[in-house]
Amino acid sequence: MAKKILIIEDNRDLARLLKSHLQDLAFQVDLVFDGISGMVRADSDHYDLVILDLMLPGLDGVEICQRLRRKSSYVPILMLTAKSSEMDRVVGLEVGADDYVTKPFSIRELLARVKAIFRRVDELKDGAKEDFQAVIRTGVLVIDPIKRSAHIAGRLMDLTAKEFDLLLHFARNPGKVYTRSQLLDIVWGYGYEGYEHTVNSHINRLRAKIEKDPAHPVYVLTVWGVGYKFIETEILKEHR
Question: Other C-beta atoms within 10 Å of 12: how many?
Fold first, then answer.
């Protein structure tokens, strides 16, 4: 079945150009030209990817992204913007966009980003890779990759998409030390060099949610002068 893509973009010429090229790759594509209609469409149908403009009439891309991330089902988001300032790029990362393209961009680059997102999603869904689907337990922390949920002592944690991705990656690799640059590349993908402070802010928020005392973390530890690692402890994996 062809993957379904929703484009929410108020530049109609650009939206139609993107639709044409994506259809050439056998994707099914729907277009919406304002934020409110885009949110309604995203809520009423299932999409494999949302290509989302940051600046939209009615409801902006940041609010749409935040609302999508509060839903129980996960949809990848590729954010577009005409702005190029560092703050705008960071906003896209902070609210949970899976990737980010700044206008003007080449169609080839955007198509490459779309393909990369689908590759990552397909890897997670690949039933042959049981380890990627296993529920992870360590102490009172339980992480379910399929449901994209994390519980502490039975209490569901309210994690953003990237906070969950960070936690899951750490838990799959206990004791392994990662630099901020490595975490950017692994969790956010290529194209975010120089945004290491984004990792710091996500780590701080993640600790605030999962640690009993964020100032003295038990799970996500700082390795001074290097980066971060997950506690070296017994990890139990329950395969489905």
Answer: 10
Phi-psi region at 49: left, alpha or beta (left = phi > 0; alpha = psi -120 to 50):
beta
Specify the 3-state DSSP secondary structure of 177: coil
Q: Is the pLDDT of residue 239 over 60?
A: no
CA distance 43 to 70: 12
The sign of the CA dihedral 121, 126, 127, 128 is negative
The candidate with the shortest Cα–Cα distance to 152, out of 171, 169, 134, is 171
Between CA 205 and CA 91 the distance in angstroms is 15
The model's pTM is 0.61
HSE (side-chain half, CA atoms, 13 Å) at 196: 9
- CATH top-level class for 4-125? alpha beta
Domain ranges of the chain: 4-125, 130-238
The domain 130-238: what is its CATH number? Answer: 1.10.10.10
